[in-house]
Write a structure and sequence with these properties.
Layout: E1 7-19, E2 27-39, E3 54-64, E4 75-88, E5 91-106, E6 111-124, H1 133-136, E7 138-152, E8 155-168, E9 175-188, E10 199-212, E11 226-239, E12 244-255, E13 264-275
Length: about 280
């Protein structure tokens, strides 16, 4: 039957922009994400029936520039490459790589449009504790369009629509479906600080539907899996100085599924530090 579990998570993000000094606003824009998950339940051994301690490193890098700088300053694009890898219990778990293209268009002082396309390939390592590793990988394509508008002074509303197609190595791992996100951001005077720097709070709702292409006979030979994931988030950024901020994030995820094995809920809280250098 269903069992609860707790775990300890550590994550960090690094965003970097290197000006190419060509007087055309071109720069190399890179991002890196590190995530480590250590289970308090389970031994962390290579026993397939127990949870695995996970470590994930992923990122992207590419040249951001204005293709029509002399005639249209509002358009910015960035072709980029994607990369990532993960370990489970200290051994190789999967690797990923691909490419993408993103761009944005500032229609006015208050309105920003943008779009992202990414194509990548995921490959799982052969492991004794993952019997079906060969069929877990596949190719993934995604496209997203988004818009952000300043509704009032220091108040922003953003919306995003997208579609994901994961062509897995087996029908029961392959899925496709739409995704959407709505967020509201507000900056306001800090209630508990004397630095004079405003706090920023973002409330968002995310949803994604996953329609799988085939049945998994080891779970339910008569039903093709279908999930709808909902995620509610609250992020509060509290500056301590010009270069340091404290970030508090609360998340709740609910994923109903037509196959009970895959239905779950999860609540997470994260306290972090943001350093601008």
């Amino acid at each position: 039957g269903p069992r609860s579990a707790t775990d300890l998570q550590l994550w960090g993000t690094l965003n970097h922009s290197l000006d190419l000094d060509h007087q055309n606003e071109a720069s190399i824009a890179s991002s890196l994400v590190l995530f480590v998950n250590s289970y308090n339940t389970g031994s962390g051994s290579a026993n397939y029936s127990r949870p695995s301690d996970l470590a994930l490193l992923a990122g992207s890098t590419g040249v951001r520039f204005k293709p029509m700088r002399s005639t249209n300053q509002a358009l910015t694009i960035r072709p980029h490459i994607l990369f990532g890898s993960a370990t489970a219990n200290g051994n190789a778990y999967f690797t990923a790589g691909g490419w993408g293209f993103d761009g944005d268009y500032r229609a006015s002082e208050a309105l920003l449009w943008g779009a992202v396309y990414e194509s990548s390939r995921l490959a799982f390592s052969s492991r004794n504790d993952v019997a079906n590793s060969a069929v877990l990988g596949g190719s993934r394509q995604s496209v997203r369009m988004y818009a952000t508008i300043e509704t009032a002074v220091n108040q922003f509303l953003s919306a995003e629509l997208g579609y994901v197609d994961f062509d897995g190595n087996a029908p029961y791992t392959a899925f496709k479906g739409p995704q959407a996100r709505v967020a509201y951001t507000l900056s306001y005077p800090a209630p508990l600080s004397t630095t004079g720097r405003p706090w920023t709070t973002t409330v968002s709702v995310n949803t994604q539907q996953r329609d799988y292409r085939g049945v998994d006979t080891t779970v339910d030979a008569r039903t093709v899996r279908k999930d709808t994931e909902w995620r509610w988030s609250l992020v509060n950024v509290m500056p301590v100085s010009q270069d340091f901020s404290v970030q508090l994030q609360l998340d709740h995820t609910n994923t109903p599924s037509n196959i009970p094995n895959y239905a779950n809920t999860n609540t997470a809280g994260t306290l972090g530090v943001v350093w601008k250098y």
